[in-house]
Amino acid sequence: MAKILFDIPVAHEPAEWTDTHLVMEVSPHIFSYAILGREKKILQMRFYEMDARNNHELAEELRGIIITDEMLKTDMQKETFVYNFPESQLIPEKYFDENAGKNLIELLHGDFNKGVILNERIGGWPQYNVFRVPAEVHNLLRENFANGQYWHYYSLWMQCGQKREDERANRLSVMFYPNHILVAAVKDKELQLLQSYAYEAAEDVGYYLLNICGQFQLSPEETPVILSGMIDVSSALYTEIYKYFLLVEMDSLPGKKPVPALEDYPEHFFLPLMKLAVCVS
């Protein structure tokens, strides 16, 4: 059964709730959303931890949230869904064939999980993202949010955060969720890998990151590792990473003023959702 991890009301004045934009992230593990007002001001954030064992249970948990969460019943001027499912494949633009998407996903990820095949061109990159989402989940959201727009997390992460002139040539970006991480590896300013990994122990994360460095000839001593999401600097996870990497830092949202309602939490905790919200608004 889904449970609320964080519920953070930021704005209370009715005058601030105009030109609202609801941005939702949907994954097998987390359902979260941010409501934005004018000038991309965050008005509300809420995070649910999902307890589903399969796609059918995930759809039912989402249905329960949609029915009971009063915020989701509020009329919004704009609604955006960001799917964060691992069955995704990046394809160079010159090789992209829309009709071959289903066969490609089934070849690389198997055909056990049935779903809807979607694709999108990644802004700023000569690549397409072809991905699969559970059909029950996609149909549920379309039924309840008829005017929603749909993206994949990997596309937005690349488009908004992984190709900036001020970024270093080599780096690992690691985003933490409960029991899984999302890793982007960049070498010579070119994306080499974007993948999700499940983990049970802190040692698993250290192993994944060292393996990625070996795969792409990145030096653990010289490669910056940029962390965001649900990781605490006093945790075993952080200690494990710091054992092997010398340039570890927490990500931040450039140019944005601190949000008073979030002062009790580490700034990087909600950064993945906040970056998404700013990117698509």
Give a description of the structure.
- The chain has a six-stranded mixed β-sheet with strand order 1-4-3-2-5-9. Strands 12-11-10-13-14 form a five-stranded mixed β-sheet, covered by helices on one side. A three-stranded antiparallel β-sheet has the order 6-8-7.
- The chain has helices at residues 55-68, 101-109, 135-144, 153-161, 202-215, 236-244, 271-280; strands at 3-9, 21-26, 30-36, 42-49, 78-83, 88-92, 115-121, 127-134, 149-152, 171-177, 180-187, 190-198, 225-229, 248-250.
- The protein has two domains: 1-161 and 256-281, 2-Layer Sandwich (Nucleotidyltransferase, domain 5); 166-250, 2-Layer Sandwich (Nucleotidyltransferase, domain 5).
- The chain is α/β, with parallel strands linked by helices and 281 residues long.
- Strand 10 (171-177) and strand 11 (180-187) form a beta hairpin.
